[in-house]
Amino acid sequence: MKYSCSDSCRRKGGRFIHIFFLLLVLSCFFDYRRGKVPNALVLIGLVLAYCCRAQQSNIGIMSARIVLVLILLYPLYMLGMLGAGDIKLYCMSAAYLAGKDYIIFFLCSLLFSAIAAFLKMLFLGNLWERIHYFYLYAVDVAKKRKLFLYQKGIVFERKKGALHMTGPMLTGFVLYLCIAY
Asked: What are phi and psi of 41, to 5 degrees?
């Protein structure tokens, strides 16, 4: 019988979910405080996931999920749309959430990142500038039929333009918990 993380959490008191929640909170702290998520935190999260999953003997499936998420999100990293820390956290989340649970979490985190990005652009007063740039980028990609680095050749202040994805991930996870339970 196959169990997703949420099924095992319901049966075993929620330890996987609690571990993952704590890791997301710590990731948010480091990301907003220092501007990056430490590799050691992601590594600890993966080790804990493997230790928990070893009891259920489905480590191969979990590893395949992690690799699949990496393969699917890597192009967004190469285009400059997601940071390396964001990719690592999404991969780590695949170790704790499976199938439908992961998709719900991922979509919820994307929803909150879109809301956060919109509010940030509105607050900074560059909403129309960013929309115009995205439009020009999309037109250029369509004309050249080739993808290239987003924001290449344009000067946006990195600190002002960057969106910390850990906040939307944590908020998306809380929404996932509300939906799943």
From this structure: -65, -45
96 close to 87: Cβ distance less than 8 angstroms: no
CA distance 40 to 98: 23
From the list 59, 46, 138, the residue with the least C-alpha distance to 89 is: 46
Query: Are residues 45 and 23 in contact, defined by beta-carbon separation less than 8 angstroms?
Result: yes
What's the chain's length in residues?
181
Model-wide pTM > 0.85: no
What are 67-78's pLDDT values in tens digits? 999 999 999 888
Tokens of 132: 């115009």
Do the beta carbons of residue 5 and residue 16 sit within 8 Å? yes
Query: What is d(CA 53, CA 60) in angstroms, rounded to the nearest whole number?
Result: 10
Rounded CA gap, 116 and 161, in Å?
Answer: 12
Encode pLDDT of 135-171 as tens digits.
888 888 889 887 777 666 555 544 456 788 999 999 9
Q: E strands, the chain, where? A: none
Which long-range contacts (C-beta less than 8 Å, at least 24 apart) are formed by 60-66? Answer: 61/98, 62/94, 62/95, 62/98, 65/94, 65/95, 65/98, 65/102, 66/91, 66/92, 66/94, 66/95
